[in-house]
């Protein structure tokens, strides 16, 4: 029964790919005259840009997640993690420095690591730290701001400190209690995996690709929903109101944090968008945009609600928002 269901899903997936390729290569949409308002064409353009920008990193994330599922045992995670909950926070932040993963891709990776036994607060440190601290984002920020040391060191210094602070606060609030959503099929899958473990040991790469494909299609629907809502906000939100608040040292960071949440940019590209606001907004508000957005935006909020319990996600959102906003205000007073 399970094999026939898997085969059916594979056939549907291949059919959809075939339809997409046919439309892409053989249909000229320019010849189809439809009276569509320009605002909705803009929604379509922004939606596609968000999805196309995010999909490569989603693929990276689900494949890394599948590798963890297949090759990393719970015993290995427990062996290499420090036993002290507080002592495990800084190594997690340092791990984020070497992971070239954005905010879209990090969610399946963290979810899988928590399922494998990683403490919740350590996963949170990776969740908020890795999308900013990784080397790809360092390079993009350097080039976007022409090596401006205030922006460069401010962004990554704040991100490193704040991911540790946020992880510590989540440890205090949830005490590492399980906050993942486990579906009935996942629980059944765990039992099946235990029964089929000898077979999977013989063909780990096949199991890896099966896990990656299942997780990609599962996560894809939340990416699409988040991207569509983000494209609506980007099109219909009155940006002139935001610009009027740009030079206020208290309001402008809050405005840019809200802007980062709505725009849902990939962390590898957000520095170039932030640089375009350089003449309008304060340095502190630009840092707020580049620190808050990779930690929390509209599209990854959908994924968080899909894979974590509602109470955890709401508390996580509140903690990240308050900590980042307070840190930016302090940074403006002490450094700028």
Short description:
By secondary structure, this protein is an all-alpha fold. Helix content is 79%, strand content 0%.
| Residue share in β-strands | under 5%
Total domains, how many?
1
Poorly predicted segments? 187-200
Helix/sheet category: mainly alpha
Query: Based on CA inertia axes, which overall geometry fits?
Result: globular
Number of strands: 0
List key phrases describing it.
membrane, Permease, 336 residues, mainly alpha
Polypeptide structure, described:
By secondary structure, the protein is an all-alpha fold. The protein has one domain. 79% of the residues lie in helices and 0% in strands. The protein has 17 helices and no strands. It has helices spanning 2-26, 38-71, 74-80, 89-98, 103-115, 120-133, 135-144, 149-174, 184-195, 197-202, 204-236, 239-244, 251-263, 270-276, 283-295, 298-307, 310-334. The longest helix has 34 residues, at 38-71.
What is the topological layout?
Blueprint: H1 2-26, H2 38-71, H3 74-80, H4 89-98, H5 103-115, H6 120-133, H7 135-144, H8 149-174, H9 184-195, H10 197-202, H11 204-236, H12 239-244, H13 251-263, H14 270-276, H15 283-295, H16 298-307, H17 310-334
Helix pairs in contact: 2-5, 2-11, 4-6, 4-8, 5-6, 5-16, 6-8, 6-15, 7-14, 8-15, 8-17, 11-16, 13-15, 14-15, 15-17
